[in-house]
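Convert to structure. Protein one:
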Amino acid sequence: MEVFFIHLVKMLDEQRPAWRKNHVIQMDNAPYHKSNDTLRLLEHLRIPVIFTGPHSYDASPVELLFAAFKSNDINPRHVPTGKK
């Protein structure tokens, strides 16, 4: 996630230097989003962020896309993953 945010901020700073004034990153309350390391990175990069409340699917329409994506067989060849 660190590499993604660093790249995103670099790109936005180059293309729209004032992006922080009228944009915000919305994240859910996943433990890795609220970890001390992530919060320090967000602060260091001066990324404006808001966190959704627990189970706030209405506040995050992308959850509908994730649900549709997850409802399909996303690993039809059954390639081994790190999950058991």
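Protein two, convert as well:
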Amino acid sequence: MHMDPFAHYAYREAYLEDEDFKEVYQQLQNQSHVHDGDNIVDYHVQDYLLYRMDKVCVHKGERL
């Protein structure tokens, strides 16, 4: 899948406002892993897109 850079930036803004993803996305701006207690949660950011277990996270405004 190819998305233009503007779409990536729009997703970045949406993640920062989304109740499901904003905390995780903010944490990943400063570190490479997100922790839930003693466990590492499998999220990462690539090209401004948030992934969990290698699947892109879709913010509420884009969900069906």
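The mean pLDDT is 80. DSSP finds two helices and five strands in the chain.
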